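4.2 Preliminary Data

To establish feasibility before requesting continued support, the project team ran the inverse folding procedure on a target of 538 residues. The structure was first converted into the token representation described in Section 3, and no sequence information of any kind was made available to the design step. The complete token record follows.
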């Protein structure tokens, strides 16, 4: 694992730099929410990144006569130096792969030039960098680029991006790749050692700059840039056409490529908004009153905790507002600036359209279209995101309330953390809190899921649990409370075959100052599973 310390203004927050771990596969919408503990979680991301990326960039750059600084800047602008394994978010779009976000013809030609298989170029860090460098080198040869002149590589950078819109190309070159070159970037491992670094290089790209003109403000969100898309139509009359949900997407690519694609009439798709990677810019593409074309599914309440059943069978585009985000479903974390900007936008949308501000009305694309989409992926920080939205809209979390989610990215690390011991598997059946959960088989083994929470003073607190119900769940799942000294305060049992998708009170205990915990035990007769999803301390 590594984290970013990045002086580049377009990524103001720290990010995790690592290959994605196990990720839950889309569930069959007709299947009951039962888990099979004998099946391992499938790997859906690339290979684990080495602790040092600089030597890999240097090797690929030298082998194919590409400036190492340029190779690093292109990779950072595309993926923030993460190994991504994108999905096709838009019809006609090829998925992006690896540190270089190679896709389609560039991936295939790059792999061939580097002498590696396409699969290796997708999933192996060095193979992906070599394929990217080889493709850049070929394009430079075709364009007669003076290889020692960093500025002269700009047209090749634009070509590799796959962006065809001239304004978006210019943004990608000047505000993306060459901004990285000018500002520099550093990625640190968790122990503080350097994983990758790019020293600032002052260079002006030899490429037309973005058009200097007054950009119109978004008609519904004043801080947005208005980039109207032709890909929309009228919402149907009646209640099914009233916006009642917000759908969260990832572009499976960069911000510039995203709004460029969504404003192209030939693409046949759109979204109402796109948020860039740093949160410094938002584009509005479709008016909120209009029907954007951002989700290819009819609504199925069983995928969304049984909420809003009256919309079953209705095109989800009728009643939703879509927000795309520069980035990928497979990335391990999202910049704080992007999450913050998106939360402000969602607050504004929800307030103006009277949308309920919870995880059933502000939902993942992958939740409502699980057969073909997973975005925004398992690491979108749902708990903190919904909390931010409510905070910006004036609603606050009850004083002192702590929520511990099974996805640690959603937790406030100063107050809550989640820990697994033994064999647990990621799950994503409908009704989970935050972004997924874990399940494990019951057996005579001490390998619990532990929900930790910090209290500054001794306090009496009530514990609530959240799980996804199903017929193979334990009817006596044991939640054991401990104070900071390790004293056993008591055990609450819960029937996880019932009361799913909501908070269920487990017990009230006298906790001490420091890190207290509640452990979900697996120690009972074999034949069922226990679900570790989320815990609330109030």
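Position-by-position output of the design step:
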């Amino acid at each position: 694992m590594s984290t970013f310390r990045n002086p580049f203004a377009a990524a103001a927050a720290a990010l995790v730099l690592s290959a994605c771990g196990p990720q839950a596969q889309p569930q069959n919408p007709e299947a009951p929410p039962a888990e099979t503990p004998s099946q391992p979680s499938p790997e859906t991301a690339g290979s684990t990144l080495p602790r040092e990326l600089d030597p890999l960039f240097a090797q690929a750059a030298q082998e194919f006569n590409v400036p190492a600084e340029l190779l690093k800047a292109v990779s950072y602008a595309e993926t923030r130096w993460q190994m991504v394994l994108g999905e096709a978010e838009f019809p006609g779009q090829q998925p992006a792969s690896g540190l270089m976000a190679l896709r389609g013809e560039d991936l295939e030609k790059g792999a061939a030039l580097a002498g590696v298989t396409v699969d290796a170029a997708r999933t192996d860090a060095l193979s992906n960098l070599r394929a990217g460098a080889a493709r850049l080198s070929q394009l430079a040869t075709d364009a007669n680029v003076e290889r020692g002149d960093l500025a002269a590589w700009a047209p090749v950078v634009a070509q590799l991006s796959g962006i065809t819109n001239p304004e978006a190309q210019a943004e990608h070159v000047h505000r993306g790749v060459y901004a990285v070159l000018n500002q520099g970037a550093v990625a640190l491992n968790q122990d503080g050692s350097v994983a990758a670094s790019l020293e600032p290089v002052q260079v002006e790209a030899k490429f037309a700059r973005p058009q200097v003109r007054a950009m119109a403000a978004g008609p519904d969100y004043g801080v947005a840039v208005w980039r109207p898309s032709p890909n929309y139509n009228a919402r149907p009359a009646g209640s099914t056409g009233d916006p009642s949900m917000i759908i969260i997407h990832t572009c499976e690519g960069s911000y510039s490529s995203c709004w460029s694609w969504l404003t192209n009439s030939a693409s046949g798709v759109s979204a109402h908004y796109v948020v860039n990677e740093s949160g410094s810019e938002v584009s509005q593409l479709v008016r909120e009153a209009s029907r954007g074309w951002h989700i290819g599914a009819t609504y199925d309440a069983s995928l969304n905790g049984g909420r809003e059943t009256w919309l079953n069978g209705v095109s989800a585009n009728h009643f939703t507002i879509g927000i795309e985000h520069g980035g990928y479903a497979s990335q391990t974390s999202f910049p704080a600036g992007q999450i913050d900007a998106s939360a402000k936008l969602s607050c504004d949308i929800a307030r103006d359209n009277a949308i309920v501000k919870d995880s059933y009305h502000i939902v993942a694309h992958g939740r409502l279209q699980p057969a073909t989409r997973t975005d925004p992926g398992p690491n979108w920080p749902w708990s903190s995101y919904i909390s931010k939205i409510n905070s910006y809209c004036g609603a606050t979390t009850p004083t002192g309330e702590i929520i511990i989610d099974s996805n640690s990215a959603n937790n406030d690390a100063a107050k809550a953390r989640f820990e697994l011991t033994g064999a647990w598997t990621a799950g994503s059946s409908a009704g989970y809190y935050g972004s997924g959960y874990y399940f494990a088989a019951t057996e005579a083994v001490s390998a619990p899921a532990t929900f930790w929470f910090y209290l500054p003073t001794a306090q009496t607190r009530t514990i609530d649990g959240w799980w996804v119900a199903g017929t193979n769940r334990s009817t006596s799942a044991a939640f054991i409370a401990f104070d900071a000294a390790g004293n056993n305060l008591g055990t609450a049992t819960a029937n996880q075959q019932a009361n799913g998708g909501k908070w269920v009170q487990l017990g009230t205990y006298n906790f001490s100052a420091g890190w207290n915990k509640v452990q979900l035990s697996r120690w009972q007769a074999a034949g069922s599973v226990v679900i570790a999803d989320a815990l609330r301390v109030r």
